[in-house]
Amino acid sequence: MNVQFSSSKISTDDGLSPGETILHVDNISLSFGGVKAIQDVSFDIKKGEVRAIIGPNGAGKTSMLNVINGFYHPQQGTITYRGEERRKMRTHIAAKQGIARTFQNIALFTGMSTLDNIMAGRITLQKRNLIWHALWHGPAQREELEHRAAVEQIIDFLELEHIRKTPVGRLPYGLKKRVELGRALAAEPALLLLDEPMAGMNLEEKEDMSRFILDVNNQFGTTIALIEHDMGVVMDLSDRVMVLDYGRKIGDGTPDEVRNNQNVIDAYLGVPHDE
Amino acid sequence: MSAKDTSSAGGEPVTFPQYLILNAHRFGNRPAMRHKDYGIWQSWTWSEVYDEIRAFSIGCGKLGIKAGDKVAIVGQNRPRLYWAFCAIQALGAVPVPVYADSVAEEMTYVLNHAEVAFAICQNQEQVDKIISMGSELKNLKQIIYDEQRGLGDYDPKKLHSIDQVQELGREVVASEGDEKWNKSVAKGKGDDLSVMLYTSGTTGRPKGVMLSFNNLVVSARNANAFDQLDESEEILAYLPLAWVGDHVFSYAQAFVAGYCVCCPESPETADEDRREIAPSYFFAPPRVFETMLTSITVRMEDAGKLKQAMFKYFMDHANDVGESILNGEHVGFWKNLKYRLGELFVYGPLKNRMGLTHTKVGYTAGEAIGPEIFRFYRSLGLNLKQLYGQTEASVYISAQPDGEIRADTVGTPSPDVEIEIAENGEVLYRSPGVFMGYYKNDKATKSTKTKKGWVHTGDAGFIDHEGHLRIIDRAKDVGKLADGSLFAPKYIENKLKFFPNIKEAVAFGDGRNMCCVFLNIDLTSVGNWAERNNISYASYQELAGHPEVYKMMEEHVAQVNRELAKEEMMAGSQVHRFLVLHKELDPDDGELTRTQKVRRSFISERYGKLIEALFDGSSEQYVETEVVFEDGRKGKISATVEIRDATVNPPAHAIKEAAE
Question: What is the ipTM of this complex?
Answer without folding.
Answer: 0.75
